[in-house]
Each structure stands twice: as C-alpha cells, then as structure tokens.
C-alpha cells in the first residue's frame, strides 16, 4: 500500500493506493507525512571517513559517542513536485538524499529488536542544506530554510521493503545520474536510530526520521531551474523543481 | 487576556484565566482546582537561545556570541504547568533554565527589527531543563541534553502581548523548594526580542504558535527527585514543576 497526501479544496487529505501508477500526480503532492522530522547527521560511512581526522581536534575534541540529531522544522517540509527555493547570497545549496522512516505507532524506549514494529513504512527525503562547514553548533541557518525538506511522493508500507538497511539511492539532476549511495552505508542502522531516538524522545505516529545523508560534494549541488530527483529502491522517486529566489 | 489549554474529563479545552487565576471554559464555567490538568499553551516550532545573557555566558566560560546562538527543541519535550519532569538515573548534573518565551502571533518572514514587535502574540514562561552529563560537541547543545521527554515545562498560560508594557524589563526568578536560586532581568538579554524575530524570520517563515525561548541568566543549580521547581517571569506567570525519578517516570508510562 502507498499512502500519500494532497490538497483538495484547500485542505490536505490522505489517500491510499495499491499501486504507484494509480497515485494522482497531476498536481504537486503535500509532504507524504505530517509530524516532527528528525535527521541523523554524520550517519554515512564515507562522510564520516572524510572528516573523522577532525574529530580529535577542537571544537569536537572526541568523536561522537551517540548518533548526532537535528530537527527539520515544519516550514521546510514540502511534497513531491513542489519547488525548492534557493536563497540569494548564501552560497551553494546541496541536495541531501536519504531514506525516510515513518513512525506508525507511538514509540517510547523501544529496543532495536522491536524497532521496526513501530514503523509504518518508508519514504524518500531530500534533506536540502547549505554547505555543512561545521557540525559543532546546530545547523539552523543551513538546514531550516523554507522548502528545504521535500518528503514523498508517498509512504510505502514496510511490508513492501525487504531490508531497509540495503537500498540503493540514486540522485539525478536534470535527468542525469549525479550521485549513488545506499542505506548499507549508514553508520547506525535503521533499527538503532529508532531505538536511540526513542530512548529519550517519544516518537508519535507520522513522525519522520531522516536516516542519513552523504557527503555533500559538488555532484549534489542544485541551482535555479534544475529538477532534482531522488530514487530509492523499492520506495519511490521524489522529484522537485528548483528556483532561485 | 490569558489563554491556556487544559485537560478535563479526558477532553482538551481551550480556556482563559481570569485575574483571580480561575480557569474559565468557553461556555463561561469556572473549572474547580483539581478537576483539570494543565497542557502546554502553544504548539509550534521551538527556538531556544543559548548564552543570551552576558552573566550566564561568563558562568559557562563563554564569551557572548556575535550572532544569536539558536537551537531547536522538539514538541515531545513540552509539558504544562504543575506536571512532572524526570531526572535520569545516574546523572550528575540536571539544571533548570528559567526563560521568557515569546509566542509568535502572526506569520513572519523577513521582518525588520522596527516591525518585529507587531508579530508577537504573547508571552509565557518556559523552563528549559538540561542534562549536562550528555553534552557532546556535535550540534551542541545536542538533543539528548535538551529535547528530552518532559524536559520543557511551559505555561501556565499565554498572556497577550499588549498586557506586557516592557518585555525588556522583567525579573526572572527560579526557586527550588521555595528557596531563591536564580535571578535576572530581561534587560540583560544580549539579543533582544526584535533582533531575534528579525534574525529568525530572515532564515525562515515563523507561524502563529512558534515559541522563542529567549535564554536564561546566571544561577543554575542541580535538581533532584522530589524538588519543586518554580520559574517565574514578572508579570507573565509562575510555572511550577516537580522532579521525579526515572523509575517513577517509567512506572507512570504503564
């Protein structure tokens, strides 16, 4: 089953479809889920390998002991087909391809073993960001700009995804494949992330976890008039036009 | 006017609070004390200012920042007035932070400092608890320190902006079991309310119900299960909260 959300007569409604081709995509969709959106930073092995020699130095001093979390505020959430807006004079803007984990049952202090029982399904997230120059202070300016978190097109039921820790993720800009990664590059698995977050934050139905984004090199840069598309195996393909503000 | 949300008979009610601190339903009934519990009075994004009082910066051995140091909390951490906050077992330092909270009243994007106060809907009191044992130098202060279940009491109510003549001259006080522990004044904010609204609305669109926790002055202290913590902002409200142990918290979940 595929669950999606769209605007109908000024209201966002939730719809279900047994097939992806029956999803009505004539108009832009709403974000595929509605709730808090928590991202896990530094959760890609290649990204960590590229900067881990900095972890012993100031300001970090020691490597992270726990998964590094951030929040994508509600103003960032947009749906499939909606426009990502690039701010003026803030430097380059990068796509952030990631698996999205959608909570289906209220989760407080769940074990890794039972973590997937609390998942409704999966979606595609583009965790858009300005350059990630530092991980020392919360990245509000880089990550919480309006339209910086496309989510969709739908939530696929978890039953249709055999192993969330082994899904290929391909990013296309203007139909050209620019970047490939996989959820097998996650430092902390899907189960571990859910268990860790729920150890101190209750996750509610509809909340979304962004599993992890790769190193933002120039291949992921997006500019005005681009169309950025992220395809995750067995989950879906999220496309958004990009506009310079 | 003072606006609050309460739970009574398993129903969530939007209520007002009168000058005698009585809770009045929309149909005009007075709710008897003890017949309801307080919920957080607002829903929205939660911005919190770190080191936004010069004296507190010195206390933490930081120099005051050149631009606002903003972090975010998630709504899982919010609780209302007269509720319980749990202290994890085996931690050394959990402290309160009494803060004036600005509640946004209308949508704000690219607002100038001159116009910023027009976007304030009201004010409330926030207590931004932190577990310092969990501090790490990645997106510091990290969510495990600051965005924990039960760790952000807020309320009791929102008081309309026009009821507060000068939000930049309000005394903040925290008491543990009636003993004064923290005292400061919003006149010492490093970045004042217009600056913060202008700064945030330059980054993103603010919407009604969004909360800006403006920071805390010096005077932090450890709190233990059984402590009653009262945070007060002059003219805005008095917010009370009780610390419980982790085991009592876990028992309350079942």
Automatic annotation (TrEMBL), chain A:
Keyword list, A-Z: Isomerase, Metal-binding
TM region positions: none
Family matches, as InterPro entries: Fumarylacetoacetase-like_C (IPR011234), Fumarylacetoacetase_C_sf (IPR036663), HPA_isomer/decarb_N (IPR012686)
Xref: Gene3D superfamilies: Fumarylacetoacetase-like, C-terminal domain
One term of GO molecular function: 5-carboxymethyl-2-hydroxymuconate delta-isomerase activity
Residue ranges of domain Fumarylacetoacetase-like C-terminal in the record: 37-242
Matches recorded under PANTHER family: 4-HYDROXYPHENYLACETATE CATABOLISM PROTEIN, ACYLPYRUVASE
NCBIfam families in the record: HpaG-N-term
Protein name: 4-hydroxyphenylacetate isomerase
Protein's organism: Marinomonas piezotolerans
Lineage of producing organism: Bacteria, Pseudomonadati, Pseudomonadota, Gammaproteobacteria, Oceanospirillales
UniProtKB/TrEMBL annotation, chain B:
Keyword RNA-binding carried by entry: no
GO biological process annotation, one example: 4-hydroxyphenylacetate catabolic process
Segments forming domain Fumarylacetoacetase-like C-terminal: 46-243
Annotated keywords: Isomerase, Metal-binding
InterPro entries referenced in this protein's UniProt entry, alphabetically: Fumarylacetoacetase-like_C (IPR011234), Fumarylacetoacetase_C_sf (IPR036663), HPA_isomer/decarb_C (IPR012684)
Family annotation (Pfam families): FAA_hydrolase
Molecular function terms from GO: 5-carboxymethyl-2-hydroxymuconate delta-isomerase activity; 5-oxopent-3-ene-1,2,5-tricarboxylate decarboxylase activity; metal ion binding
NCBIfam families in the cross-refs: HpaG-C-term
Protein name: 2-hydroxyhepta-2,4-diene-1,7-dioate isomerase
Organism: Marinomonas piezotolerans
Lineage: Bacteria, Pseudomonadati, Pseudomonadota, Gammaproteobacteria, Oceanospirillales
């Amino acid at each position: 089953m595929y669950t999606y959300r769209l605007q109908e007569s000024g209201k966002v409604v939730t719809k279900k479809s047994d097939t992806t081709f029956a999803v009505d995509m004539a108009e832009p969709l709403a974000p595929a889920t509605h709730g808090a959106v928590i991202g896990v930073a530094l959760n890609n092995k290649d990204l960590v390998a590229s900067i881990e020699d900095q972890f012993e130095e100031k300001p970090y001093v020691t490597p992270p002991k726990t998964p590094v979390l951030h929040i994508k505020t509600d103003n960032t959430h947009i749906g499939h087909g909606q426009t990502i807006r690039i701010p003026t004079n803030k430097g380059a803007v990068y796509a952030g391809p990631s698996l999205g984990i959608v909570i289906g049952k209220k989760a407080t202090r769940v074990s890794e073993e039972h973590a997937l029982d609390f998942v409704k399904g999966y979606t595609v997230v583009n965790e858009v960001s300005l350059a990630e120059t530092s991980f020392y202070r919360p990245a509000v300016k880089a990550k919480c700009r309006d339209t910086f978190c496309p989510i969709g097109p739908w939530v696929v039921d978890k039953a249709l995804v055999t192993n969330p820790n082994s899904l290929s993720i391909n990013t296309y800009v203007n139909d050209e494949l620019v970047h490939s990664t996989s959820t097998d590059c996650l430092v902390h698995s899907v189960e571990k992330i859910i268990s860790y977050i729920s150890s101190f934050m209750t996750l509610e139905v509809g909340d979304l976890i962004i599993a992890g984004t790769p190193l933002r090199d120039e291949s992921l840069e997006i500019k005005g008039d681009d169309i950025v598309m992220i395809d995750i195996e067995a989950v879906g393909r999220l496309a958004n036009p990009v506009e310079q503000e | 006017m003072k606006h609050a949300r309460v739970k009574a008979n398993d129903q969530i009610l939007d209520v007002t609070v009168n000058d005698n601190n009585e809770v009045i339903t929309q149909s005009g009934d007075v709710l008897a004390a003890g017949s309801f519990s307080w919920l957080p009075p607002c829903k929205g994004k939660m911005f919190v200012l770190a080191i936004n009082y010069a004296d507190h910066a010195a206390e933490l051995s930081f120099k005051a920042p050149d631009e606002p140091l903003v972090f975010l909390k998630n709504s899982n951490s919010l609780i209302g007035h007269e509720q319980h906050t749990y202290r994890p077992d085996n931690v050394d330092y959990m402290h309160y932070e009494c803060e004036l909270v600005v509640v946004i009243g209308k949508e704000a994007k690219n607002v100038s400092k001159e116009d910023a106060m027009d976007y304030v809907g009201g004010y409330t009191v926030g207590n931004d608890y932190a577990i310092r044992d969990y501090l790490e130098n990645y997106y510091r202060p990290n969510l495990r320190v600051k965005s924990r279940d039960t760790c952000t009491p807020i309320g009791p109510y929102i008081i309309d902006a026009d009821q507060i003549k000068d939000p930049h001259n309000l005394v903040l006080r925290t008491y543990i079991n009636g003993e004064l522990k923290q005292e400061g004044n919003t006149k010492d904010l490093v970045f004042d309310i217009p600056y913060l609204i202008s700064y945030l609305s330059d980054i993103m669109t603010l919407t009604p119900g969004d909360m800006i926790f403006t920071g805390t002055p010096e005077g932090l202290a450890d709190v233990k299960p059984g402590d009653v913590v009262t945070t007060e902002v002059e003219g805005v409200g008095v917010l009370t909260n009780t610390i419980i142990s982790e085991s009592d918290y876990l028992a309350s979940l079942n």
